[in-house]
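Think of the structure tokens as a kind of shorthand, similar to the way a musician reads notation: each symbol stands for something richer, in this case the local conformation of the backbone. In the example below we present two proteins back to back. Begin with the first one, reading the sequence and then the tokens, and try to describe in your own words what changes along the chain.
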Amino acid sequence: MLHAMEQEITIPADGRLPDSFKAAFGHKARVIVLLQEPIIMDQNDSERLMAFAGTIDWPIDDPVEWQRQQRNEWERPWD
């Protein structure tokens, strides 16, 4: 049986749910957020994200070759 909890709230900046949802804490739930006004993305968001481009230290030079090597290491009963 499903149990629905509905309350109109303003989600605080820290993203924590209010204590009125305490009965749901620690339980699996489906969360649907309905906003009355559209979210306007700050134009600086894309610039902020692009600052991370190329910063991941990835130890694999050739991903395709790495994947082939991984597959070759699998044990196969027909070999």
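Once you have a description of the first chain, move to the second and do the same.
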Amino acid sequence: MDIDNFKETFRNQCREEVKEIYLESEQEGEFHPNLFNEKLINVWRAASMNGIDEYDFSYLVHDVIQANVALVTFPFDQPIAA
């Protein structure tokens, strides 16, 4: 597997993990951003160690959670524009 295929495969894995924590963070139809943000840190750590940059990761999160993205605190060292 070449590096591009690995990154795409890993990006898809991250997307699935973000979807999963998003579903876990919705309780009784209400999104709980603190719970989501807490779990997002672990996904970001794995993503960054595997070559996913902040832009790609934030795009992925935006794509998954769309309406609630304003409530997300991205776990980057320095905040980036949404």
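Compare your description with these statements about the second chain. The CA atoms of residues 7 and 50 lie 8 Å apart.
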